[in-house]
Design goal:
Elements: E1 3-15, H1 18-56, H2 61-91, E2 97-110, H3 115-119, E3 122-126, E4 129-134
Parallel strand pairs: 1-3
Antiparallel strand pairs: 1-2, 3-4
Helix pairs in contact: 1-2
Length: 135
């Protein structure tokens, strides 16, 4: 065997444009709205279920409250991450390159190929169009 095909991860970067920045900001704002709605719904659900459980069995209230507190903490962490992402995006200048989700490509390797060069490839995208392949 003197060749082998493998899947290799490829870094995808987007050049930040006004359009992309607005799109990403809108996505973050929508996600923040969803998280805020989920936090509000969780609070209402927690109050109702804890009050209901208190009438039935007071000893079961503490574990139930802990469960709701854990869900609240998880959502609060998601909210904080979104706010940090929004702040970071706001500070980025137009033209900056931001890393996007990684993709895979099929590569045929031969004996003697430079593995560093094979693994170091990336794609640069601007406004949805590929503008460069880099090694």
């Amino acid at each position: 065997m003197d060749e082998m095909q493998i899947l290799v991860p490829v870094t995808v970067k987007s050049k930040l444009t006004e359009t992309l920045k607005k799109t990403l900001m809108n996505e973050i704002d929508q996600n923040l709205s969803r998280v805020d709605h989920d936090l509000s719904a969780l609070k209402s659900e927690a109050e109702a279920k804890i009050a209901e459980q208190a009438k039935i069995n007071m000893q079961a209230v503490a574990p139930l409250r802990a469960q709701f507190d854990q869900q609240h903490m998880r959502l609060a962490q998601v909210r904080e991450k979104l706010l940090a992402d929004k702040e970071h995006l706001d500070k980025l200048t137009i033209g900056a390159e931001i890393t996007r989700p990684t993709m895979n490509r099929v590569v045929t390797l031969h004996i003697g190929d430079d593995m560093n060069q094979v693994l170091a490839s990336e794609i640069l995208v601007e406004d949805g169009k590929i503008v460069a392949f880099r090694n």
